[in-house]
Amino acid sequence: MNRSAQLNRGLLAMRPVYVIGIGLHPYQRKSDRSHVELGLTAVREALQDASLAWPDVDAAFVGTALLGMAPGRAILRHLGATGLAMTQIENASASGSSAVAQASLAVASGTAEVALALGVDKPPATKLVLPRAPTGIPALPGPSLPVANFALLAETYMQRTGATPEQIARVALKNHRNGAANPAAQRRKVRTLDEVMSDPIAGILTRLQCCPVGEGASAVLLASDTALKRFGLDESRAVQVLASVTRTERVYPDGLDNDTELTRETVKVALDQASMNALELDVIEVHDAFSVEELLYLEAIGVCADGAAASALADGEFDIGGRCAVSPSGGLLSMGHPIGPTGVGQVVEITRQLRGEAGARQQPDAQRGLAHMVGIGAVCVVHVLESRAAR
Amino acid sequence: MNINDVVLVPDEPGDPVKLVGGRCQNCGRSTVPHPVYGCEGCGAAPSDITPTVWVAEGVVKSIVQVHRRGGDQSTWVAKIALDDGPLIRGLIDQQSSGVSAGSRVKGRLASSQSLADDQLRDDLLVFVSVSEGSL
Question: Taking Cα atoms as reference points, which of A3, A1, A2, A5 lies closest to residue A273?
Fold first, then answer.
């Protein structure tokens, strides 16, 4: 790891940053609703949740991977053209997470008292093809489907740990059960194990073990202590962002998975900055685009030993009510993965949990949470959050 | 004749298919294709990376079947450790039976239908079990 990462104390070296408002437009299949309406729904809900007015916001960071050039003002001007600072952020699947990271940094550094992180995306009118410019490097002719890559990973995971296809499918069983209790989720049906294991896509991965494509929006408002006092906000509902860490993959020995090792490194830095142990986490939202990923990342995060995630899941340790609720929102598998909104939506869910406002999905006594996303690159963005009651 | 500057088409029937990559003289990292801009492992300049040719043969580490939506055809995809070379991902010939983790496989050319002009071309690299007959 480079020397600056080892020395960097992160957000806690600067002013405290709090999530004070959250909002969502439900994730859903592609519809006729414009991205403007999706985004405005989420932002208005966040403003109302925070008891703030739009002119109170100093800066906006809009995370989107599919909306093209400069969609932020097209959305936000309808709240009033206040002249606030505005920036679009693209970081593949982690676009929304990076918007949260930049908004947190703006508040922590003092360049904003209140900052918005908005995640918004909508599949294009034609077939979804992720736009990537040619690099000038010839490619080995062959398959490049992400689902094939994770299906191969699942095979390796089963060979290494003895986990069974049924145990891996139980990730999706849990997450669909959680998503069924989430009115903002794209998939809201409780499923049987037989249903989860039917309709194969690649290897052991079936349709319900792969995240859906869709649209949506999510928003979080972040504020400083100064803003909390100036606007007379309810400090008991403020959730502190203790760490915000972004890293990219390095070269790992053959046989190790890049996203898993990247997660291990990024989470270690984030938990070190937050002075927290993985076993202290009460709620985790991870990049479970494919079911096997949840198991790989939980082991990398350190909530269980390497190779032990499948059996811990089967024992209920990661259920809502277990020792650590994983993907209580339903995760990418059930809540959905509209790309830009996803990482922001994870922070929305964790904030609800740490406030004790998650209703039927509430993890009892939740005080500490971790949001994890990976994106093509690969890039990994991790946030660690804590309730006021924990301090 | 090369396919896409990565796959070397054999000159004679029976000759092996080969893959063009690079080996970094600074850190030893091997990759296919050749890393034309520099070494991702150590940052060495392109001039420190030696173009290297590997026979397209190795051992399957893992293999999965990928189903095609709306059709009854599927493809098989594997991670293959080339002999004394890097780990790559490759298609396994659908007709090739008995390939599983641990199997030795070798590359051969197959035909694909061009979407542009509907012509068949030998531009698809697939891997078959080494126990099958050669080209």
Answer: A5
Tell me the pLDDT of chain B averaged across its residues.
84
Q: What distance separates the 2 farthest-apart alpha carbons in chain B?
A: 49
Question: Terminus-to-terminus CA distance in chain A, angstroms?
Answer: 30
Provide the β-strand partners of residue A116: A60, A221
Q: Between A and B, how many CB-CB pairs are < 8 A?
A: 92
CA-based nearest residue to A238, from A118, A111, A375, A390: A390
Could you tell me if A218 and A108 are in contact, meaning their C-beta atoms sit under 8 angstroms apart?
A: no
- Annotate A65-82 with three-state secondary structure: CCCCCCCHHHHHHHHCCC
Confidence of residue A103 (pLDDT cuts 50, 70, 90): very high
Instruction: Please say if the pLDDT value at position A53 is more than 70.
Output: yes
DSSP A145-170: -HHHHHHHHHHHHHHHH---HHHHHH
Q: Where are the beta strands (DSSP E) in A122-251?
A: 200-202, 205-206, 215-223, 239-248
Question: Which H or E element spans position A137?
Answer: none
Q: What is the mean pLDDT of chain A?
A: 94
Of B65, B90, B123, the CB nearest to A202: B65
Residue whose token pair is 């490049």: A144
Residues of A in contact with B35 (CB under 8 A): 137
Interface contact flag, A151 B6, Cβ < 8 Å: no
Q: Does residue B33 have a cis peptide bond before it, meaning omega lies within 30 degrees of 0? A: yes
pTM attached to this predicted model = 0.94
Lowest mean pLDDT among A124-138, A169-183, A205-219: A124-138
Q: Say which amino acid occupies B130.
A: V
Long-range contacts (CB closer than 8 Å, 24 or more residues apart) made by B27-30? B29/A251, B30/B85, B30/B86
What is the pLDDT at residue B134? 43
